[in-house]
Amino acid sequence: MMNVAQCRALIESTKLFVFDCDGVIWRGATLIDGVADALDGLRRHGKRVAFITNNSTKTRANFVKKFHGLGLTWVERDDVWSSASAAAAYLTQRAKLDKSRKVYVVGQSGLCEELCEAGYTVLGGPDDEGSSVFPVPERFEVDPAVGAVVVGFDRAINYYKLAYATMCARENKDCLFLATNRDAITHLNDEQEFPGGGTMVAALETAIGRAPEVAGKPSPFLVDALYAFHGLDRDSAHAVMVGDRLDTDIIFGNTNNMATLLVMSGVTRQSHVDATQPGEDDYPTYIAPSLKLLADTLAEM
Amino acid sequence: MMNVAQCRALIESTKLFVFDCDGVIWRGATLIDGVADALDGLRRHGKRVAFITNNSTKTRANFVKKFHGLGLTWVERDDVWSSASAAAAYLTQRAKLDKSRKVYVVGQSGLCEELCEAGYTVLGGPDDEGSSVFPVPERFEVDPAVGAVVVGFDRAINYYKLAYATMCARENKDCLFLATNRDAITHLNDEQEFPGGGTMVAALETAIGRAPEVAGKPSPFLVDALYAFHGLDRDSAHAVMVGDRLDTDIIFGNTNNMATLLVMSGVTRQSHVDATQPGEDDYPTYIAPSLKLLADTLAEM
């Protein structure tokens, strides 16, 4: 566990704190102890903060509402980086997909809305929920203007969507294939691991026959976009990734030249930590029980 | 291309001819030229024949009906090996799954029927088509008696099925995870490549976190079951696999100690053949335009 002196040194040397949300900031509908004070303290010391989440089903506006509801009323849309907004940023900034080209979505409304806000005409998503059973035509026609297939978590996944996305990616010229994220599992309730967005991605990867680009964690694109937004340089960003998962957050930070702080307020148990090895991508630089350690340290600074 | 002398030698040295169906025996609803005479000739010369298909959506009874409708009225259920019947055989013969354990199916009615006929209580399949949208419970309960999840091509795939199968495989003790086949694409119409059963398998493999056993082509299980049925020994079976696809049929034969005969009456073009290399798993032993060469050769024998 990190001690107060180490925590103080980390705060002093860090320009940007990047936080995973679930298990770090909140658990379900509850703010985790110490979070409000930790964030206030960091901002008071002139630190930049950003929140990232691989949840692609909500818009940043939805997340801002959640932050406000938990009392973090200073949080703005630009502070939040979701895998849906990352996908939209990928299309505009990285792929430079012309706005005349449409986007076919296998995913939920939040993803569609982020892509619409970025200026794209969006097909699929909830509009194709009702098309699960369809007669097979002599030729399955797709809109030739579709220039990108974007896939995220979709509880209304069906064969029509899989077929439409597959035909676009296989038959439309230069059609991009982009995943919001590849998380294998997701927690729809507190106890169990449900199929995550990575299951829809794997299905389409198989049918399309090529691997997707990835916009969210642990893709380096998200870091590049985040650093560009904050005017930071990748090599001297002095950023720290704070997360509760070794296999996503900590790997993401370690492979992107960030320090990593694992908090034990989420899904990771000591036995998981004991199974990691120094030098491995999932080995955290620091470990703390929760953000309360930051709050306490900042109170003394 | 194989000449008549080679064809004659192949027939003379072969005990068992294993035929893929689509593109070899029929194209859509049409019998391919020479097939009836070739099969009659082989049977007249005392050769054993078997038909195998990775289509898991129909029962063997359905296939027999198709054979009969095309004039091949001697074909019986035991002559047909589908990936659905292979899955049922896998559970009974290989996994020796007790009949008291239930089977959860992500797949269509033919697969469910084959598993029922094998003596299992089947859950899922078409019964769970209507469950695509469901409120997330505090705990997603699955039947603890489910001892195997079997996945095949499913045009009515939905999130409920993916979640149910995932929970069974992750939470039920010793729950088997079995795929009928992993074909990435399928031809629902003549022109296009649609997502195949392999897409549903990939989705579940991701969520479950382990690779499935496979019953159909190119799994060696299918060959073992076929040889056992015909009382043949794997090392001296003198079998030939006849197919129209390099990436499934020819690989299947080559990796299972069979001679392989590629027929050009299906999806493979000369350019595909030119891209194969001697010694590779997809390099066929022989190539013929269609089964008409067998028919013509047999007419002279």
Short description:
Two copies of one chain form a homodimer. The first copy, chain A, is an alpha/beta fold and 301 residues long.
Q: Can you put this structure into words, describing what you see?
A:
2 copies of one chain form a homodimer. In chain A, α5 links the parallel β6 and β7. With 301 residues, the first copy, chain A, is α/β, with parallel strands linked by helices. The model of chain A has no long low-confidence stretch (mean pLDDT 95). In chain A, the strands form 4 sheets. Chain A has a 6-stranded parallel beta sheet with strand order 5-4-1-13-14-15, sandwiched between helices. Chain A is elongated, with a radius of gyration of 20 Å. Chain A folds into 2 domains: 134 residues, Rossmann fold; 118 residues, HAD superfamily/HAD-like (Rossmann fold, 3-Layer(aba) Sandwich). In chain A, α2 packs across α11 and α6 crosses α7. Chain A has 11 helices and 15 strands. Chains A and B meet through α6, β11 and α7 of A and α6, β11 and α7 of B. Chains A, B: Keywords: Hydrolase, Magnesium, Metal-binding. Chains A, B: GO terms for molecular function: metal ion binding; phosphatase activity. Chains A, B: This is Phosphoglycolate phosphatase. Chains A, B: Pfam families: Hydrolase_6, Hydrolase_like. Chains A, B: Its cofactor is Mg(2+).
Ordered list of secondary-structure elements with their pairings:
The structure is a homodimer of 301-residue chains.
Chain A: H1 4-13, E1 16-20, E2 26-27, E3 30-31, H2 35-44, E4 48-53, H3 60-69, E5 80-82, H4 83-94, E6 102-106, H5 109-117, E7 122-124, E8 146-151, H6 159-171, E9 176-179, E10 185-186, E11 194-195, H7 197-208, E12 213-214, H8 220-230, E13 239-243, H9 246-254, E14 259-263, H10 270-274, E15 286-288, H11 292-300
Parallel strand pairs in A: 1-4, 1-13, 4-5, 6-7, 6-8, 8-9, 9-12, 13-14, 14-15
Antiparallel strand pairs in A: 2-3, 10-11
Helix pairs in contact in A: 1-11, 2-11, 4-5, 6-7
Active site (chains A, B): 20, 22
GO molecular function (chains A, B): metal ion binding; phosphatase activity
Organism (chains A, B): Monosiga brevicollis
